[in-house]
Design goal:
This protein has 1 helix and 3 strands, in the order E-E-E-H. The protein has 61 residues and is an alpha+beta fold. A 3-stranded antiparallel beta sheet has the order 1-2-3, with helices on one face. The radius of gyration is 12 Å and the shape is globular. The N and C termini lie far apart (28 Å). The relative contact order is 0.22. The model has no long low-confidence stretch (mean pLDDT 87).
C-alpha cells in the first residue's frame, strides 16, 4: 500500500482502519510540503480535521 501514501508530489490524505478492534492510522501530505501522520482513532480524526481546515480543499496556493 505504499503507493497510496501521499507525498508533496502527490498530495492527499490516506486513512486506514483494518478492523473495528484495531486503531486507525492516517497520513497526509500537502503540495506546500507539510506532512503528518497519526495512529489511533482520536488522533486520526484530528489529522483529518486539520487537513480539512488547513490543507487539501481549504489550502490556497
Amino acid at each position: 500500500m505504499a503507493d497510496l501514501a501521499p507525498t508533496p508530489d502527490r498530495p492527499g490524505l490516506h486513512v486506514s482502519k483494518p478492523s473495528p478492534s484495531e486503531p486507525a492510522t492516517g497520513s497526509a501530505a500537502c503540495h506546500c510540503g507539510a506532512t503528518s501522520s497519526a495512529r489511533g482513532d482520536a488522533q486520526v480524526a484530528a489529522l483529518v480535521a486539520g487537513w480539512n481546515a488547513h490543507h487539501g480543499p481549504a489550502h490556497k496556493e
